[in-house]
Amino acid sequence: MTQVFDDRFPESFDSEPFLTNRRTSQRKSPGPAKKEEDKRPHIKKPLNAFMLYMKEMRAKVVAECTLKESAAINQILGRRWHSLSREEQAKYYELARKERQLHQQLYPGWSARDNYGKRKKRKRDNKTDSKPEDFSPRNKKQCMPYLPQDKTIDSPASSHGSMLDSPATPSAALASPAAPAPTHSEQAQPLSLTTKPEGRAHPPHHPFPLLAKASSSSSSSSSSSSSSSSQTTPPILSRPIPFTSLHPSLLSPPSPFHQAALHSHHALFQSQPLSLVTKSAD
DNA sequence: AGTCCTTTGAAGAAG
DNA sequence: CTTCTTCAAAGGACT
After folding, report:
1. Residue A226, domain member (yes or no)
2. What is the reported pLDDT for A81?
3. Assigned domain for A218 exists
4. Which residues in range 46-75 of chain A are in contact with strand C, contact meaning CB within 7 A of any of its atoms?
5. Which residues of A in 152-211 have their CB below 7 Å from strand C's atoms?
6. Which among A13, A24, A55, A275 counts the fewest CB atoms within 10 Å?
7. Burial of A214 (0-12, 13-18, 19+ CB in 10 A)
8. Which protein residue's Cα is closest to nucleotide C5 at C1'?
9. A207 falls within a domain
């Protein structure tokens, strides 16, 4: 009943990434319907590691594959995500953890349940009817190699083009040094889009179990975290990140949270020569 | 105009 | 405690 946001975070927060006010609001456009709900800002869920990874790499994949369909792009990104090394994934897990922390600080009373029912769930019922071979009306596209063959697939997008439009893409720089190099191997494969390789066969194995539950307590003193087992430091990062000290008010309006987070995070990683793999730098 | 598709991860709900 | 469900991004395709 008590909305925690309306009072604490007036319109001035419309620049917040967690608030739905910009183009991408919910899906396409909430529409004039139900204005009541539209008035109050829709606090979005913080992005998880994979979502952060997608935001960064989407433009790159789009440029490489000349694909635009998000469904196909996401499939490619999903494969690439698995191709990333643990260290590379760790960057995104850490970013996601920080996002969750900040989100909790900004909206202490917010719960993921608040957004339940905001979007109509499709709930594709099993699809036992349609076999994988039976191509559904929506033909799945493959990732065309594209690539001028002469140019390396290094970063067609990050070089000049598509990165311009998205303001949240400064993070793209983060991904550049982490070129997983499986790119070509990914594209080489026909990328069976029709049937997911194993679906969710691989259990929710957490590459970083510590990170998984680390956010349960963090340093925030808001929710009653039962475990609260000291600050579980990420297994890879050697230095503490002065991020928790960030206050919403400290975040300058023009620069969205992502930028701050990524910048601080990126700076952290940059301080170390070659990603965290080489912990011998120090 | 609204929903689906598609991915992984987080978190709540239900059993 | 385990399993299931929903939502986060995103943009073409579809209804």
Report:
1. no
2. 96
3. no
4. 47-48, 50-51, 54-55, 58, 68-71, 74
5. 166, 168
6. A24
7. buried
8. A123
9. no
Count how many domains chain A has.
1
- Using the CB atom, is residue A114 less than 7 Å from strand C? no
Looking up residue A173, the CATH number of its domain turns out to be 1.10.30.10
Chain A 91-110, CB < 7 Å to strand B: 93, 96-97, 100
Is-contact A61 A77, C-beta < 8 A? yes
| Domain-located, residue A142 | yes
For residue A102, pLDDT beyond 60: yes
What six digits make up the tokens of A232? Answer: 């579980």
Distance A246 CA to B7 C1' (A): 31
Lowest-confidence segment of A28-42, A77-91, A97-111, A191-205 by average pLDDT = A191-205
pLDDT digits (tens, 9 = 90+) for A15-72: 567 876 433 333 433 333 444 544 567 899 999 999 999 999 999 999 998 888 999 9
Q: Which domain range does residue A86 map to?
A: 45-119+136-193+245-270
Reported as a single tens digit per residue, the pLDDT across A189-213 is 333 333 333 333 333 344 454 444 4
pLDDT at A56: 95
Phi, psi (degrees; rounded to nearest 5) at A88: -70, -40
Collapsed DSSP state (helix, strand, coil) of residue A93 = helix
Of A201, A231, A186, A210, give the one whose Cα is nearest residue A65: A186
Q: Which protein residue lies nearest to nucleotide B9, measured between its Cα and the C1' atom?
A: A48
CA–CA distance, A280 with A282 (Å, rounded to integer): 5
Q: Residue A82: what pLDDT? A: 95
Residues lying close to strand B (Cβ under 7 A), chosen from 213-272 of chain A, are 215-216
Let me know: does A2 contact A243? Beta carbons within 8 Å.
Answer: no
